[in-house]
Amino acid sequence: MALDRWIAFVILCVALAYAYAAFFTMDHLLPPFMQRNPIWPSTFPKVLSVLAILTALVILLGLEKAPESDKAPDIDYRCLPDYHLVPALALLALMAAYALLLRPAGFLLATAGFLTLGGAILGERKFHILLPVAGLATGVVWYLVEQVLGIFLRPLPFFL
């Protein structure tokens, strides 16, 4: 079986476990006043699990592929050093650093830094565009989460 089908199988197993949790274990703890709502806290996990199961089945059954041809596989493991592994690993390290720095550095500084460095890693060299876009996106997301949703995010570093 090809690598994409093995990955689809793993995703299918995880999605089935997630669907079991969403359909059978989440709703019995709801308070009585929420049981009459048309949308419950488990609605999005239910939809997400069904979509993940359907997508994994499509890949697992090979419904998304055209008929077999003499085309080479998408990923050639013998040429692995030719792929852009350094930017991919740098982005993974940047994501981990962002998660670790979110509380001490504050949301605004950590997110703006993540977006700026992530854009630079991906190849953006117009910093006169990258910095304002990262700053604006960070500010808009912080405003929406803080003011509209009412969820507190520490905007500045802990020492300020």
Automatic annotation (TrEMBL):
Spans through the membrane: 45-63, 83-101, 107-123, 130-153
DUF1468 domain boundaries: 6-153
Position of the signal peptide: none
InterPro entries reported for this sequence: DUF1468
Pfam hit, one: TctB
Keyword annotations from UniProtKB, A to Z: Membrane, Transmembrane, Transmembrane helix
Domain of life: Bacteria
Protein known as: Tricarboxylic transport membrane protein
